[in-house]
Amino acid sequence: MLKPLKHQQFNHEQQPNSDYHEHELIDVQFTNTNLTESYFNDSQLTDVSFEGTDVSNTDFTGATFDQVSFKDALLTNTNFHLAEFHHVSFVGATLTNTKFNQAVFRQCTFLNDQGESVDLSSCDFTEADFAFEDMSHIHFGQAKLQNLNGEGTQFTHANLAGANLKNADLLGANLVGADLTDADLTGAFTKNAVFTKENASEAKPTKPTPKKSIKGFIFTMLFIIVIALLIWEFVK
């Protein structure tokens, strides 16, 4: 059973090595707080602020986030493995050696982030919005990016090996130097997207829309004719 923590403010405090694992946090403020090397694993966080907070080396494994802000937070070596994010902002956050592998993201915002060696492998970004954001050098290997809004996004030297980019909007995206080995671009819109010769050939070719079955078409037409004849006999 989760331990409740509600309607609390810990702004501008020193709380390194704190233990909040298996907690239910609701309306809690940690703005500009030192939470380095703390534990939030397997917790549920709703309406929580980590704005400007240092959560470096902190463990959020398996945590669930809803309406949470990491704006301008320091997330160096932070672990979000298997976490689930809903309406979470990472605007201006420093993401260095941050691990998000196998996390799920829904309606989250990454903008003006700084960092390197970010692990987003095998994450689920279905219908995410990365338009005009800088995702260079990020590890998206095996990630689910179908229906992505990637218009104008910078994916330079990103690892997209094995990524699912089905029906993604990559209008004007920059994929120079990106690893697209076995990436699936079926149905992706790539007008004005920039590839290098090498990585363009690595991506799986867009598959044509399957043709409708001829037998199915004939059956449908016969069915329509039979119905029409029955109606004609009825109204005569």
From TrEMBL:
The keyword Disulfide bond does not apply. The keyword Membrane applies. Keywords: Membrane, Transmembrane, Transmembrane helix. Pfam families: Pentapeptide, Pentapeptide_4. This is Pentapeptide repeat-containing protein. The chain crosses the membrane at residues 216-235.
